Amino acid sequence: MADRIKDTDYLAISARIKAMETGLLTRERMEQVLEARTDEEAVKILQECGYPELDARNPEAMDAALSAARDATLSDVGGGAPDPRYIDIFKLKYDYHNIKAILKAEAMNTDPRRMLMDMGRVPAAELLDAVQSGRTENLPEGLANAAAEAKEVLDSTRDPQLSDLVLDRWCYQEMAKTAEDTGSEFLAGYVQVQIDSANLRSLIRTLRMGKSADFLKNVLLEGGTVDTASIAAIGNAGGSGLNELYGPTPFQAAAEAGAEALRGGALTEFEKLCDDAVGDYLAGAQFVPFGEAPLVGYLAARETEYTNIRILLMGRGAGLPAEVIRSRLRAGYV
């Protein structure tokens, strides 16, 4: 954009976001869903919060309903955002998900349509046609380059994991570039903390699976606040020094849970604490009166909310104890 958008350009949308925040699923509301006597009562509570009827007995339909709610939120808020790139940052991951699905389906000679999510910047049908035909010139440049490189890797190695790694790297690179182009320190920090989370997860998973140091180096992403060389060194040392490396960072608790997972513990708490560290960063947006931060914080809070709703309903449907479900809920924004 020719002119840098100022935070005061967000006065109107910021005021609207502050009003919309009152509709977020609070910890108290989640407790009501958790303690509801019947599944029908739990669903009714969510309907009172603006959600359609959700049925955990039909996960595909429930996910479709949550996806529709997500798409409606992005469309609603996006209409008042002075800079559409703040909306794109939440859409582009679906473009990359769709390319993964298309390439894997092509390699297996199956139809990818049921796996596609029509919530990206590019309509799913348009993306499918572009990738399958090889006519990607009308796609965003980064996405077109990513699709070409991932297809080449998959064709030459027949290893979908390597193809996914290519797409993950391009996805985070494009997120970082989008944030940089906006000039927003808050958005850049949001991308950085997501990269830190992804790298910590990769470290713990690599060690748990007994993968090589070279494998870890290939999956680590540049652009986070924790140096990748230092993370790789922890991997080479079998996890020794993990708590020391992450102790001064927002991922201290997650790293401690990761160390416990390396000793044979479950990954559930570790995964939750990684998400919570990202949520803690976003929570700071609540104290910003206007600008892009409240917009980014609200949209990310909605993403967390969709995750929590799924945890609540699927947990109830599986008959899990309330304390187990509660322990898996991600930290809320409000």
How would you describe the overall organization of this protein?
There is one protein chain. The protein has 334 residues and is mainly α. 69% of the residues lie in helices and 0% in strands. It has 16 helices and no strands. The chain has helices at 11-20, 27-35, 39-48, 59-78, 85-108, 124-133, 141-157, 160-182, 185-209, 213-219, 228-236, 242-246, 252-262, 268-283, 292-317, 322-328. Helix 2 runs antiparallel to helix 3, helix 5 crosses helix 6 and helix 8 runs antiparallel to helix 9 (185-209). The longest helix has 26 residues, at 292-317.
How would you describe this structure in keywords?
334 residues; mainly alpha
| Basic shape | globular
Overall pLDDT score: 89
Strand content: under 5%
User: Measured on Cα atoms, how large is the radius of gyration?
Assistant: 20 Å
* Stretches with pLDDT under 50, minimum 5 residues: none
**Largest pleated sheet:** none
Count of alpha/pi helices = 16
| Beta strand count | 0
Spatial separation of the terminal alpha carbons: 33 Å
Oligomeric form: single chain
Helix proportion range: 55-70%
**SSE order:** HHHHHHHHHHHHHHHH
Structural class: mainly alpha
